[in-house]
Amino acid sequence: MKADYKNWMPKGMIACSLAVSVVLTIITMMIGVKKKIGKVMLAVSIMCGLLTQWMYLLYRAFSYDGKRQMSKQIIDGVSSYIRIPDGGKCLDVGCGSGALSIAVAKKNPTAQVIGIDRWGKEYASFSKELCESNSRAEGVSNTTFQKGDAISLDFPDETFDAVTSNYVYHNIQSKDRQELLLETLRTLKKGGTFAIHDIMSKSKYGDMESFVKKLKDMGYEEVKLVDTTDGMFMSKWESTWMGLSGSAILVGRK
């Protein structure tokens, strides 16, 4: 039995975009490009085709079975920052297919890792059952998975010895994503570690350097923002064409 972590670029989205592109091309051919409407349809067809190609390239880059395996590289990298004491607990926010939760659990076999996700229709292939199946396939028994909402976590303050997350918060509609980070960090015990990876660009998160300073002023022992687009997980060029510019890990100790 092999774990199936799916792909961050769902096949269904690629198939849908390809189908639309083909239909638009056929309609364009029927109308003819000499007419104004035909020229418009041709332009739309070309754009749809380029979008489909972009999605396919993302799919190849993110695939766990492909040559690039960016998803695996990121998961392994983020999980390497997490240290959990014997018998401790870790929260993985937005666990998706369970990849990060399982990676953390493997590196911390004496700890318990809880993965939460709302498993929305946007990523219909991800589910609690898939996470549990992947844990079994990896021979991991120190994980549990449950429904949860990153906006309002159903855990008291200082519950966990570590918290982590990967590419989650930028998907949430919010005027203040720094508040989402604080919601996650409030569940962290004093002395606990954290590693949160996301597209932390100014347009999505505001001034993250000021946020780092804010955490330090709040008494956090260690806080740093690590750029992951400068060869750590990807090159600057990859982050640009993939739409991942601004990716960084917020790491430290409370």
Describe it.
- By secondary structure, the protein is α/β, with parallel strands linked by helices.
- It has two domains: 11-62; 70-253, 3-Layer(aba) Sandwich (Rossmann fold).
- The chain is built from nine helices and seven strands.
- It has helices spanning 11-31, 36-62, 70-79, 99-107, 128-137, 177-185, 202-205, 208-217, 236-241, and strands at residues 89-93, 112-117, 143-147, 160-166, 188-199, 222-227, 247-253.
- It has a seven-stranded mixed beta sheet, with helices on both faces.
- Helix 1 packs antiparallel against helix 2 and helix 3 (70-79) packs across helix 4.
- The relative contact order is 0.12.
- The model has no long low-confidence stretch (mean pLDDT 95).
Strand order of the largest sheet: 3-2-1-4-5-7-6
The level 1 CATH classification of the largest domain is Alpha Beta
Give the CATH superfamily of the largest domain: Vaccinia Virus protein VP39
- Overall mean pLDDT stands at 95
Gap from first CA to last CA: 39 Å
> Quick one: overall form?
globular
How much of the residues is beta strand, in percent? Answer: 15-25%
Rg is 20 Å
List the helices and strands in order. HHHEHEHEEHEHHEHE
Task: Count all strands and give the number.
Answer: 7
Main beta sheet: strand number and arrangement?
Answer: 7 strands, mixed
Unreliable stretches (pLDDT < 50, length at least 5) are none
Structural class: alpha/beta
The number of distinct structural domains comes to 2
DSSP helix count?
9
In helices, the fraction of residues equals: 40-55%
CATH fold label of the largest domain: Rossmann fold
CATH architecture of the largest domain: 3-Layer(aba) Sandwich
